[in-house]
Amino acid sequence: MSGRRSVFSNSQVLTASAAFIPVADEVFRLQGGDDPECLFFQAIAEQGHYRGGARGRSTRQGIYAFAPSGQLLASVNTLNAGAVTKMLQEAQEKWDQLPAAQRGLAPEQRSMEGRHRWEWQRPKDGLVLQTTSRDLPRSQSAPVNPRPGAWNRDYAWFTRDEARSLVPDDPHTGSQCSWPRPLVERLVRFHLVDNVRGQSQAFDATDIVHAALQSTVTRRQGSKVHVRVTGQTHAVGTREWRDHASPDRARPRRERGFVSDLLGYAVYDVEQRRFVHFDVVAVGTRWGATQFNGRRNDTDAAPIGVTLRLSKRDFVAPAFFQLYGWPGSQHPGVVPLEPTAQR
Amino acid sequence: MQPDCLVRVSAAILALLLSPLCGCVNSEKSGTTAAFAHANPEVVLNDTTLVALRERILAAPQDLAWESIAWRPSLWEAVLEGDREERPVLLWAMNGHPLGCT
To answer: Which of A108, A167, A175, A271 has the largest count of CB atoms under 10 Å?
Structure first.
């Protein structure tokens, strides 16, 4: 996630990238899938900085500039904005020199398309929340946070019917409802995880010690139902994983946990059948680490916060969407996501 | 009661409320109570602190310039658009969606 700030928030990179059609995509599916879109990417990556290596097993992360024909212009994997700017300038020069016949797609390629993208299952007319996670200030006696500025983002999806179930059936001031268990579990297992410094792992359902959320109607204005959302969550899990920084190959069991209070406010429009406002905050404590979430040297209990807000962007699938259990959430050609190390 | 005392008492009450729940967990989770007690008791969520905590968690504007780029939703859509407009494509590909959880 560091690239968001160090690279793609850099003014020189923004200027140099203006000539290109920009796209951001998840590499795990692209590098391992077997549909035309994935194969198209793999052919480009084989010309780039990580060419060679086993298909689907070696990472192809990076920044690629290429002609629509699939011819690579330049590529790099770095958090250095200067290096990216240079790469984009080099790509632009190569594009300018590229013969027209080598720029575009072959006619038969234009009808190709991906066979599966997780965002195709996005909940039309449902509830799409954008989550932001960040460490909160530690007590003076706690170890210093080595990366206090880190934050991460994810998306949480709820279908239209699921969203409706977060508001009392007969909403009037004072009425209350508990969130359905499956939706509470979705929140705790997939969205109240410590991903501040990088992808974490989902909690198992059995890791949930306690979790409950409620919506209480604070007022009703015509079709708009104003609710106060409160809740508490508590999840603890253990997993075996190997620390790649460790010289031995041991895989000890390691604990991690997340305890939180939730509070916030939302507005549901019963005529539009959707939330028109959603702003909830979870604040609590995380401890432990998962294999790739950057906490291996920062496992003591420390405060963490997560915001859950209405999102305008709906084409980015939740990190753990494959575990949602929705029809179509599992793609047979790609194994379920296990986070892999950032390079 | 001073505000500082109030938040500490609130944290203590919260810890007490959660402690019976911790007692319900299996032995693998027995470290939970101790771990939770180590957290900063001054970070408390209530109607008074809600907005400040939310603003503290959310990304600052200078961290969001990357959102000014009109990222296309899929590689193939970008390729087709580049083909139509005769423009090269810039792909940012990461483990985890670069615009989501990486």
So the answer is: A167
Measured CA to CA, the distance from residue A220 to residue B88 in angstroms comes to: 52
Nearest CB to A305 within list B57, B80, B94:
B57
Smallest Cβ–Cβ distance between A114 and the set B14, B50, B76 belongs to B76
A251 neighbors A241 (Cβ within 8 angstroms):
yes
pTM of the full structure: 0.85
Nearest CA-CA partner of A4 in B75, B64, B74, B70: B64
CA nearest to A113, candidates B97, B74, B89: B74
Task: Write down the pLDDT at residue A16.
Answer: 96
Q: Is the pLDDT of residue B102 over 90?
A: no
Residue B34 tokens read as 């101790």
Nearest CA in chain A to B44: A283
pLDDT in tens, A182-211: 999 999 999 999 999 999 999 999 999 999
Nearest CA in chain A to B55: A307
Query: A34 vs chain B: nearest CA distance in angstroms?
Result: 14
> Considering CB atoms only, which of B25, B73, B96 is closest to A315?
B73
Instruction: Flag whether residue B26 sits within 8 Å of chain A, measured between CB atoms.
Output: no
Q: How far is B7 from chain A (nearest CA, A)?
A: 13
Give pLDDT, residue A56. 57
Three-state SS at A171:
coil
Facing B93 at nearest CB: one of A30, A73, A279: A30
In 3-state terms, chain B is what percent helix, strand and coil (to 5)?
A: 55, 5, 40
pLDDT at A44: 96
Confidence of residue B80 (pLDDT cuts 50, 70, 90): very high
Which residue in this structure is represented by tokens 């194994």?
A335
Percent of chain B whose predicted confidence (pLDDT) is above 70: 62
With beta carbons under 8 A apart, name residues in chain A contacting B32. Answer: 209, 234, 236, 257, 259
Q: Which of A331, A14, A42, A343 is nearest to A198 (CA)?
A: A343
Residue B25 or A308, more confident: A308
Region A299-322: what's the mean pLDDT? 93
Contact B7/A at CB under 8 A: no
Q: How far apart are the first and last CA of chain A?
A: 11
Q: Is B71 within 8 Å of A340 when comparing Cβ atoms?
A: no
Q: Which residue of B has its CA nearest to A135?
A: B57
- A71: tokens are 């011819």
Query: What pLDDT does residue A39 have?
Result: 92
Residue A321 burial class via C-beta count within 10 angstroms: exposed 0-12, middle 13-18, buried 19 and up: buried
